[in-house]
Amino acid sequence: MTFVSNALGSLGSLIDYLSIATKKLHHSQSQNSLPPALTISHKRWRIARTFIYSSRVLVTLAIDVITRKQDQLVITILPSSPSFTTLDIKQTTPTFSAIDQTKLTQIVKNKNLDLLRHEYGGAQEVALALDTHTENGILGDDDDVRHRREAFGSNTYHKPPPKGFLHFVLEAFKDTTILILLVCATLSLAFGIKEHGLKEGWYDGGSIFVAVFLVISVSAGSNFRQSRQFEKLSSISNNIQVDVVRGGRRQQISIFDVVVGDIACLKIGDQIPADGLFLDGHSLQVDESSMTGESDHVEVDKTRNPFLISGAKVADGYGHMLVTSVGMNTGWGEMMNSINRDSSERTPLQSRLDKLTSSIGKVGLAVAFLVLVVLLVRYFTGNTEDENGNREFNGSKAKINDVLNSVVRIVADAVTIVVVAIPEGLPLAVTLTLAYSMKRMMVDQALVRKLSACETMGSATTICTDKTGTLTMNHMKVTEFWLGQQTISDVASSAIAPTVLQLFHQGVGLNTTGSVFRPTSGETPEFSGSPTEKAVLSWAVLELDMDMEELKKNYTIMHVEAFNSEKKRSGISMKKKGEKTINVHWKGAAEIILAMCSSYYESSGSMKTMHEEDRMKFKQIIQSMAGKSLRCIAFAHRQIPNEESRDNTDKRAHQSLEETNLTLLGLVGIKDPCRPGVQEAIKACRKAGVNIKMITGDNVFTARAIAIECGILEPNLDMNNGEIVEGVEFRNYTQEERIEKVERIRVMARSSPLDKLLMVQCLKQKGHVVAVTGDGTNDAPALKEADIGLSMGIQGTEVAKESSDIVILDDNFASIATVLKWGRCVYNNIQKFIQFQLTVNVAALVINFVAAISAGKVPLTAVQLLWVNLIMDTLGALALATERPTEELMEKPPVGRTKPLITKVMWRNLMAQALYQIVMLLTLQFKGESIFGVNEKVKDTLIFNVFVLCQVFNEFNARKLEKKNVFKGIHKNKLFLGIVAITIILQVIMVEFLKKFADTERLNWRQWCACFGIAAMSWPIAWVVKCIPVSDNPFLRSQVVGRL
């Protein structure tokens, strides 16, 4: 039975009918008037009967009113007796029949205020039609939300369908070399079938077809998988948390769960989750540039502009909005539907590797062209022999089919050399390692919004970090309270004068963006808002017996100046209902509020003038609390005399608040302990050569205490040695002074977002790669200016998150250190793969070129080279790109901006391995038959087998660029071991069971042992080579890789 909640709205109409009821009652009594001779008992019986009859009349009238006024109430009259009537009242789902969704959507989109007032009367009436209580919100249970979603739609937009597997297959077919190979395979297949019949003639061309499709399928499958992963990460990054009021309780929900009728709470930095109407709030200004392109902020209020559009950002103030349209019914939804997000973002590293690939490809193309010319000349001059030792080309005696078939085979071999020479696996390796690291970083509490940040973070030389919530736990609690010049250890409300206590209630309960929810069951109240707001509110409610609901009922807020990181204070003007006296309340950073005060209250309630010695005493109190790592908040008050406010009440509501001659109410110290593990994380970063700079809005003493506690500063540090500065001091330096001193600074206190931006610019001018954390709207310029912007997932505003590259989901500095480690891992994995890839490229090009010049044929066929290409580009990339970060990465200095991608260490390693492979394979090419006592077919198989196994063993060497022990930690990378095992198994199958396909001969166990032995020699060679010292100076400065 839910009669009460719905019937209350009809009480007004019910009262209109009471006069009718009275007339009916009078008529009833007149017809049943009492004779004078009746006894007292009879009179009492008549009165009771009349009362019961009258009640039935009133109930009948109530049924009539409620039925007409509330469509959602179903009232059933159960069987009644002459003395009572029973009602069964059930609430059904509201129909929203008074709302025309299309019309309301257009009114809000077009900001048509006249039509809004004409059609509905205003925002309050729209809320009533949407069955929304303007303070308690919607009911919010599952049935209510589901019905609203069915009636008005969900807050999602239709995304373009994701690219399917076929798309990536078709993309792979656009590669010119692949198309040439397919043409060659087609011609080879046709000539082979014509010459040898279908049973024997399809092997050469069919093998190339199978090999090409295998390469394409693996590559397309890998790209398809990464595309889906990027789509998933993108949906996570779009899942914004929104504050709404449901059932009288403020709660956070996903933006996708917002429904029409919701009351959304807005504050500075929030993204407006849907289209809607302004209900209440103060000084609300929004940035609609994402929708309209206009950079000027738009003021929102009840009278002139109550319209709020989805996708806009709150620039100032706070308020509550009524959601009127969601999803595709909003302008933001329509715009997002028309945008096809492309996940193929090219990072700087990918662009650099594209240049490297192009340059190496040109070299490969030149070698392939030379091989093509040499082979064609040797063929047409009769210097080549077939399998039986006969000349292949006999002039006019040669069959046209044989000539064409031989030419196609030569062209296919040359094109295959190009395929192998072009290291298209480099971009794939970057994509794989970025995708893998993004996925793993999500587990480590870091959401990557821009791919380039993954790799850039590995080069970071300086991290500028916030204090609150990043270095500290963000679990704040009031631990000290000063009233006047004495500390109040027993903060029971009885210890404070009633007048001062009342002013504290006003200053805390009204000058806040937080809220208090009191459960009906008598449980502990729930507090919402920023951590500082929650700490102060919980202290006032639990210790000072503040009743926030009572304050809101008795007082009217006239003007608000919202808190931001520049002013470091917030203020309100308010008055008691029914009175004209205006009171101004300020709250904020203690020394800033103290400077605005000329008097102070004592606990007794008396007001005293603040002399200079009193001011110094308060400063000492503030410094004392700051030295204990407490954040010091001050409260101040001023009453505006009646003669000043009598005629200017409306005018004053839109003016700036009084900022002078305030009376200090008191000081509170808020403790926010350091996060566990932050000292170790900072120590690890400094060991890795990364400078840590703390930038905070707290005063210099609190900042110093926290910095010492976290390990950023030494305990006995002199305050005047230049490592600690205040924002205003840094701001007032000349540009030359800032450049000179910026590297020495470790802590900046009382900083503004402008100071943070100046520091980032100075560090970048000094050549640093800078990572910056930020959570506020005003941090957006610094986040954009930095090489890597790190926003906070919990405390960060949506503006800050959109300006950042990586979102730290748990706001923890330890997660930032983990991101640094992952960034270095990405960079290191790419270097590993480059070394591995270039070794194969150099060896394959040299072997094929020398063999073509000397013997007139290449030892590795097109199918074999495609198999090597598959091992290199896809399986090799997958094996080396998925290495997990190790502690060794944090023992090296950062690479910075100028260090080449291909270092001297890498050149040393790859040239040694390539030289060994060339020597061994050319030895087999020219002496293999005599060494092993085999024919040419088996010799070619041995060359192919040794070449592949050398790459497998060299994968182990590539795991460690400088360390000699390449097996350390290998048991942790099961994917690497699995790929190596799969490669060896497939190689055995290729040689032993796919003779026709791979053009190989079976090998005996001695020959297999010899192949493994030759390949395994690459391990001791790598160990010896790594003993050769190399300098840190760049080895290659050429156009090819010098800029890498």
UniProtKB/TrEMBL annotation:
One CC-aspect GO term: membrane
Keywords, comma-separated and alphabetical: Acetylation, ATP-binding, Calcium, Calcium transport, Calmodulin-binding, Ion transport, Magnesium, Membrane, Metal-binding, Nucleotide-binding, Translocase, Transmembrane, Transmembrane helix, Transport
InterPro entries named among the record's database cross-references: ATPase_P-typ_cation-transptr_C (IPR006068), ATPase_P-typ_cation-transptr_N (IPR004014), ATPase_P-typ_cyto_dom_N (IPR023299), ATPase_P-typ_P_site (IPR018303), ATPase_P-typ_TM_dom_sf (IPR023298), ATPase_P-typ_transduc_dom_A_sf (IPR008250), ATPase_P-type_domA (IPR059000), HAD-like_sf (IPR036412)
Residues of the Cation-transporting P-type ATPase N-terminal domain: 117-193
Molecular function terms, GO-annotated: ATP binding; ATP hydrolysis activity; calmodulin binding; metal ion binding; P-type calcium transporter activity
Transmembrane segments: 205-224, 360-380, 414-436, 838-856, 862-882, 975-993
Pfam families noted in UniProt: Cation_ATPase, Cation_ATPase_C, Cation_ATPase_N, E1-E2_ATPase
UniProt EC number: 7.2.2.10
Membrane topology annotation: Multi-pass membrane protein
PROSITE patterns, A to Z: ATPASE_E1_E2
Subcellular location: Membrane
Reactions listed under catalytic activity: Ca(2+)(in) + ATP + H2O = Ca(2+)(out) + ADP + phosphate + H(+)
Family: Belongs to the cation transport ATPase (P-type) (TC 3.A.3) family. Type IIB subfamily.
Its job: Catalyzes the hydrolysis of ATP coupled with the transport of calcium. This magnesium-dependent enzyme catalyzes the hydrolysis of ATP coupled with the translocation of calcium from the cytosol out of the cell or into organelles.
PANTHER family, alphabetized: CALCIUM-TRANSPORTING ATPASE 13, PLASMA MEMBRANE-TYPE-RELATED (PTHR24093:SF434), CATION TRANSPORTING ATPASE (PTHR24093)
Name of the protein described by the UniProt record: Calcium-transporting ATPase
Organism per entry: Nelumbo nucifera
